[in-house]
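so my prof wants the structure for this chain in the tokens format not the other one, which i didnt know existed until like an hour ago. anyway here's the sequence
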Amino acid sequence: MDIRTVDDEIEAYVFERHIETAGVYGIKEGLGGAPGVRFVGQFVGAFNLFARVVANDLGELQARIAGEYFDAGVHSDWSVNLTGKRIAAPKRQSPDICALVKVRTKVDPFGLLDVLDERFLDEGAYGAAVVTAPDFDLLVDLGADTIEDVLDRVLALRDLPGIGRTSTALADLANNAIRPSAS
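here's what i got, hopefully its the right format
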């Protein structure tokens, strides 16, 4: 299994649930300037803050999690993208109005990813990844022009065979996301 991105990097996600003294904006700003960060934004729902980061290898990722990312205030769950080569992955490109859905599958998550691609890929504003997480198997990024349209897409996702429990967070990222240039 090749988990590296097309740029030969390891990609990881963090779902910060418990924001401490720095607050969401403080953590977002601190993390946004840290090495390897490609996206960070505030969400409402299953988690308060989400970030997508990359590293050259697992050791570098672990050092950043224990160092710069921890110092920025991130003290929550990390997950590695096991399908890094995919172009349609969460928060690589998505519109401002979006949902990130953590999905527990009832079937093989790699096979279900093909079903999701068939259902959502042609509609755009979609990304998905099989991840290492204790409570879910897939992370699905769904976007649209309005929050109502995003919620319709989330409901369509929940109706697909093989989808088990889901946990959703929503965001309007127009003035809320930090998307640093590659570093």
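also thought this was worth mentioning. The CA atoms of residues 17 and 47 lie 5 Å apart.
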